[in-house]
# Entry
Amino acid sequence: MSNPVIEVDDASVSYMIRHGASPTLKETVIQAFKRESHDVEVKALQNLSLKLHPGEVLAVVGRNGAGKSTLLKLLARVLPPTTGRVVVRGSVSPMIELGAGFNGELTGVENIVLYGTLLGRRPKTMRERAEHIADWAGLVGSINLPLRTYSSGMVARLAFAIATDEVSDLILIDEVLSVGDAEFQEKSKARMAELIDSKAAAVLVTHDLDAAREMSSKALWIDHGKVMKYGEVNSVIDAYINA
Amino acid sequence: MAKILMSKEVYDSAARGKVFADTFKAFWNYRELIVLLVKRDIAVRYKRSFLGLLWTLLNPLLTSLVLWFVFITIFSAKLPDGTQFAPYLLAGVLLVTFFTQGFNQAADSIAQGSGILMKIYVPPQVFAFAGAISNAVNFAFGLIALAFISLITGDGISWYFPLTFIVVICMLMYVTGLGLLVSVAYVRYDDTRSIFSILISFMMYLSPIFYPKEILSDNMLRIVNANPLTSFLDVFRYVFSNTGVASWADWAYMGGFSLVILFIGIRSFAKAWPRTVVMM
# Structure
């Protein structure tokens, strides 16, 4: 079997916050001088280990504040673990908050090029693919208009089309499969299935448990940073529902 | 310190990197993104204002014009022989605009981009560098106006003017370094902007932008000369229109200070950024 795309080995993420920390620099400096503050340790993730091979889909379930977005940051290589180790092999397509990174003043095409380059692709490739991406997102008529004239559904469709235009080794999905109308949802689910067939690994963070069962092979249930259960998708989701 | 890497390499959180070499490598490897970000900055500015790109030129020109009206009678006679007040002023305003706007944009670009930087792996240092470069481009536009003013006032342009390039490189290092140094505070605290804008205006007024150094008392002169911006201004005026004097000490101070600030900025950013990401 080929190398796993993701190898997480006993990774934990923790950080200190000042009790009653304030959002201003002035207050923070004053507090530091007064020595009134008490540091509190937040354990966002504890002793997580997992492996994901090409073509496998992992569903991540858990209540709000369970550590799901921290896990996505670890896998998107944005955040190093405090202890333990994370290895990710290959390119990552994060589909998290579709539309972050877009600029309202730029046109659809300009945003395709910029967003694609942010994802690590070549501007030249993106320029060549722009027409195809616009077509797939159903935005051919408005692709030369500034993005601020788009509806939020159009923005999300464009972001999805750019992110899935190339086959990545790892796709990170955070609640974005509910993008657009029913027709586009079908189309995007089909596209996801295609990518997974072509050996992309995916991590799917979702509250839609039916979608999780349908699309995933494995599941991870976390709560307050702790791993509650990890393994075959149906057994994990059953345990999560019954908890 | 964790290794900074390119988007398609194998990522291993346990790999240690060399923070300086990695940062410079990232600037090179992400050069296409830097070009796009600079183009975006310029395009957005152009699209938002009625005057478009002309505004970036008009702004320092109008500022200089106002200062010229106010100070011409006081300072003109104090300048060294053969130096005209108008190009002296415009040179100062252009370079200081590069400094203040470059610093602001370098620091702010990471705060503005934090939404995406916390989700997609792009070395955030690239954003700061692109912000600084946008302002170098503005500065280059400004040089055209300065050349024009220098020629009509009779100051002329020096044969050394290509050396202005070195001033630009040093300023890029200086503002990128300063920007990286404070950008984490920009992301975390709301009031950083106002606090730093006060510090920056201190630095502005403690450098000879619109007044000649000749009017300063000995004590004041010591303070003003300790400000690296003063060396930048001396060197720039000297290489561009051969006015004033720039010693080797000025060159060394400008280059050395920029390099040190850049290294401090890179190092502190690499340490502070992961601690910020985890809290967001």
